[in-house]
C-alpha cells in the first residue's frame, strides 16, 4: 500500500455528525468552494450549483425534511444542486433549443458533476481536520426542498453537505471486503449470502454513535430490513418530481 | 485559502489522457481499491462494484464504445458499476422481496455511491503523482457495455476510470467563476449570458491537447453547440436500458 497524507486521510474517513460550536473560517470555506470548482466535469458542461445556507429558518426547514437533528446546527450547510438550468438559459439566449437537456443521460452527467464535487470537498475538508456528513436525506421531501430553495425547472437538489469541527470520534465503519465488490473483466453473478457471514460478524462489532452507542445490525440484516422495504415515502415520488422539473423526460 | 498537500493537488487537477508505458504497481492499485472501498456510502447500502479490465479484447471493445484512442491503452482501466444486484440477492436469499430496489431514488443512491468512489480514487491517484481520466463515454453504448461485462439486471455501467503515469502536461482548464455557481439560501434565476463574456474569453485561451493543440470554443458556444444538440445517439436510450435492467421503474 502506498502511503501519503491524502491517502492516510482517505483510509481514515468517518462520517461526522456532531460538530463543535466553532465556525468554519472564511478561508476554509473559500478553499472548499474552490476545490468544488476545480472538480472534473462531464463534457465540460459544469452542471452543478452550490447553495450555501445561512438563513436560520431555512436551516430549520432542511433539518425537518432530513429528520436529522444535527442538520443546520454547528458547521456550514451546503446544498449541492444538479443544475441544467444555467445551460438551458445559455442555449435559449443563443437562440438554440433545449437540445439534449431533457435526456436522462444528461441528467446523469449533471448528477456525476455534482457528486464528484461533493467527494472532492469532503476530501478537502478532512485534509483540514474538518469533518463532514453527506446528506442524502434532503430528498426525503425533494419537492419541499425545491420550493424552499427557489429551484427552477431543470435543477434538482441532490445532496447536502454539512462541514465543521468534529465533536465526536466514531469508529471506522467496516466495509465489504474487496472480493465482493471487485471482479476482473466479467461480473460474477454467483452469490451465496453465507460467504458474507464473517463480514456480518465484523459489522456487528461496530458501535453506532447515532443511536446511543448501541451495536448495529449485520450488513445483510440491514439490506433486508425495513429501511429497504417498500413503504409509503416521498422518496417514491422522485421520478415524478424529476419529470416535473423537466428532467429525465426521455 | 488553506494550503496543504491534498488541497494543492486538488486545485492542480487536470484530466490526463496520455499515459506512459509504465504499469500501475500492485501496491498502487491496491491503494486505489482500498480508497474506493472506504468511501462514504448512502445508508450503508454499498451499492457499487468495480470491474478491473485486464483482457485486451475487452479493452479494445471498450475503446470502440468510448471512441477515445487512449482507452484501454497504457495504465489501468477500471469500470465503476452501479450495483443493486448484490443487495437484491441478499434480500432474495433472506426471503425478502426486492423492496425499494426498483425505485429511482435507490438507483440514484447507487449512482452516488459509485461517483463518490470514483472521485475518491482520482484524488488518491493524483496524490501518488498518477493521472486519471473519468470516462463517461462508456455509456455511448450502454447496452453493449452491459453485454461485454456480463452485467446482470439491477446493475448499470456508469463510469470508466483510466489511471496511469502521465505522459502529458495539460494546461489547467478554466472553470466557471463562483458567482455563477454559488448562491446564498435561494437560487438566483436571473441570468444574462453577457455576464459570461469575460469567462468565455478566458476559456478560449485554453489549448486542448486532445485536438492537435488548437484552442477551444468559448464555454457558451460549447453549451450551444452540436454536442448538446438533439441527435440520434445511443445515449438517448439510457432510460430504456435502465428499465431493461429493472432500475428506475418508479
From TrEMBL, chains A, B:
It comes from the Bacteria. Residues 12-164 form the Nitroreductase domain. GO terms for molecular function: oxidoreductase activity. SUPFAM superfamilies: FMN-dependent nitroreductase-like (SSF55469). Keywords: Flavoprotein, FMN, NADP, Oxidoreductase. Transmembrane segments: none annotated. Signal peptide: none annotated. Pfam families: Nitroreductase. Belongs to the flavin oxidoreductase frp family. This is Nitroreductase. It comes from Liquorilactobacillus satsumensis DSM 16230 = JCM 12392.
